[in-house]
Specification:
heterodimer; A: mainly alpha; 2 strands; B: about 0% strand
Chain lengths: ~325, ~290
């Protein structure tokens, strides 16, 4: 999709580094560095205040006994009691597992389907643009709207479309099948796969279209069959795109709250975001909710370290 | 397909089995793409169909496919009893204003990360990205307490605007940086030699080249703000209620609600569909934070 050769016209990362180094030399003599930093500072300061300060507050609150229930005693220092509760309570542990299970399932399946569809869309066929548009559309439905629609219009016992179609296909008592109660996690996963496959497909399709056509033609001339070409050329080339799609998908999907609240209301499908919301908003136990938040942040940092490494490798050899 | 193939064989003198195999494969690939595409669009079409049915006909078992079509549910959305209008306006306000703020902060920042880079520019990039990896739910409690107890702004769009700005700023910085990096440095240097001031360079050279990028960035930030539901749910109640939160209130299980709900989900999603298809060409570059072009 790239229109300009990456190394010549465009400012490459090495070029940016060079400029920064050149500027650093000027800095030793003058006040140039502040002039350079000035445009960056508002964004940086804004982000630190709005995103970092709340986490500091969360950390402080995680060491407090603090419940907002009307009959609760006042605030007091709790030591590590909240953390102990987080690690020993079964629901919290199961929320962690649900989050991992859902994220992994959705990311893996969406990448696989996305890759398949991208391979199909990479070739010319009648109505390719229409199919592409149809594939993107689910990603452009407001997530909570998609969730309540799947939870009511598609999977609701009785009048949901799935039960209706099963009934019309001759399944007995189909109106009593309630996927949301018998398979709550799977229901949410299907809805999420439906929404996120387009995202994966778009990134992977861009990857496929950036393959070197000369190498592909050379392989064809040399008599490589489609499978050999896929294994030897496409897959190695696509590795970085698959990593990128999976990493970005993970960042968004692990934070999913809308599908759980919109489809099952957390019944047997509570993930971490929904659990924190419940403890804070419904149970009003601010101390435990904060401790849960802190644990989530530490978990995210571990996952993010891996994720940042993937994105970092992309920044060093910009995919184009 | 059986009708066309023999014709092909007579035209090409040597019908190699490989070629025959390929044309079947191409046909099968095209067909499967269509089938998968239809599967993915089908729930949306069904949502649309249901939103056009009478409430009583919309939630039957089995589904009443051929029931007559009506705009009642859409009229209902804008009636006095339900009235989605304030929620749509709140969402519009929150999304548009936060997107403008994001651009005002992100464009200068991206400039300082590509065209006139600061030292350790990549550290700054990763700081922005890392904030995206921390789940918003972990910071929501202090933010809630702060708005209620410190600044006394419960149910305020203002708070959402600030939060949406912080939510989209990292994405916008990454996107804008990748778009600004496409501005050929030689042009800027030539302008500097000719004595152009920074402001002039920005307005005359950088802005025109970066314009499509700025447009794509705004559309994507608009979509993410419009879609947001968690903060809106926790921090607003009546006056500042946004459209995604409003959709939930359409679930009224005491009567047939599905048709009305579907009209609501369609109405709420239309702006996102428009913005998304408008940004289609740059959607990948935006969603991949500029890593894929």
């Amino acid at each position: 999709m790239s229109t300009v050769p990456a190394t010549e016209v465009v400012l490459t990362n090495e070029a940016v580094d060079q400029r920064a180094r050149a500027a650093a030399k000027i800095d030793k003599w003058g006040k140039k560095s502040w002039v350079r930093r000035a445009p960056l500072l508002p964004a940086l300061v804004f982000m630190i205040i709005v995103t970092q300060l709340p986490f500091v507050a969360t950390l402080v609150m995680s060491f407090l006994n603090w419940s907002a229930q009307p009959d609760a005693p006042g605030k007091s220092f709790a030591g590590l009691a909240n953390f102990k509760e987080v690690f020993t309570t079964k629901e919290y542990r199961s929320a962690v597992f649900t989050s991992i299970e859902m994220t992994v399932t959705v990311v893996v399946v969406a990448v696989l389907i996305g890759m398949g569809v991208a391979l199909l869309l990479d070739r010319k066929f009648f109505g390719r643009g229409v199919v592409r548009t149809m594939m993107i559309a689910p990603f452009l439905i407001v997530p909570i709207a998609a969730a309540v629609f799947w939870g009511n219009g598609m999977l609701q016992a009785g009048f949901g479309l799935v039960d209706g179609v099963l009934g019309q296909l001759g399944v007995k008592d189909a109106q009593n099948i309630s996927f949301l109660t018998t398979h709550p996690k799977l229901s949410i996963e299907i809805e999420l796969i439906w929404q996120w496959t387009p995202f994966m497909m778009l990134i992977l399709l861009a990857g496929l279209q950036s393959r070197d056509s000369e190498i592909m033609e050379a392989a064809l001339v040399d008599g490589a069959n489609p499978w050999q070409m896929f294994r030897a050329i496409t897959l190695p080339h696509m590795r970085r795109y698959i990593e990128l799609a999976a990493t970005l998908g993970t960042i968004f999907i692990v934070q999913n709250f809308d599908s759980v609240v919109g489809m099952t209301g957390g019944q047997n499908s509570t993930n971490i975001p929904y659990e924190v919301y419940e403890v804070f908003y419904a149970a009003k136990d601010y101390g435990v909710a904060s401790a849960l938040g802190v644990v989530v942040v530490i978990g995210s940092i571990i996952v993010a370290t891996f994720g940042l490494r993937v994105v970092s490798s992309l920044l060093s050899e910009e995919v184009a | 397909m059986t009708a066309t193939l023999p014709g092909r064989i007579t035209r090409t003198d040597v019908p190699t089995p490989v070629k025959k195999h390929r044309s079947y494969a191409a046909l099968a690939a095209g067909l499967s793409a269509w089938v998968i595409g239809l599967i993915f669009i089908f729930p949306i079409l069904y949502m649309l169909l249901t939103s056009l049915h009478e409430p009583a006909k919309a939630q039957t078992y089995p589904p009443s496919w051929g029931a007559s079509l009506t705009l009642t549910n859409y009229k209902g959305l804008f009636s006095d009893t339900i009235n989605i209008r304030p929620a749509l306006l709140n969402s519009l306000q929150a999304s548009v204003i936060s997107t403008i703020l994001v651009l005002l902060l992100a464009i200068p920042a991206a400039y300082a990360l590509s065209i006139r880079p600061v030292r350790k520019w990549s550290d700054a990039m990763f700081f922005f990205l890392s904030t995206k990896m921390l789940p918003p739910v972990a910071g929501i409690l202090p933010i809630y307490l702060f708005t209620i107890k410190v600044i006394h702004l419960p149910d305020s769009i203002l708070v959402l605007i600030v939060l949406y700005t912080s939510m989209n700023l990292p994405i916008a910085v990454w996107m804008m940086r990748s778009f600004l990096a496409e501005v050929p440095p030689a042009i800027i240097e030539a302008a500097q030699i000719d004595g152009a001031k920074t402001i002039q360079i920005m307005a005359r050279i950088v802005a025109p080249i970066a314009m499509p990028g700025i447009a794509a960035t705004s559309l994507i930030c608009f979509i993410f703000s419009w879609n947001e539901q968690l903060f809106a749910k926790v921090l607003t109640s009546v006056n500042a209620q946004t459209a995604p939160v409003f959709v939930n209130t359409l679930i009224q299980t005491e009567h047939s609600y599905l048709a009305q709900l579907c009209a609501g989900t369609v109405a709420v999603s239309v702006p996102v569909l428009i913005a998304g298809f408008a940004a289609q060409d740059k959607l990948v570059q935006g969603l991949s934070l500029g890593a894929v072009k």
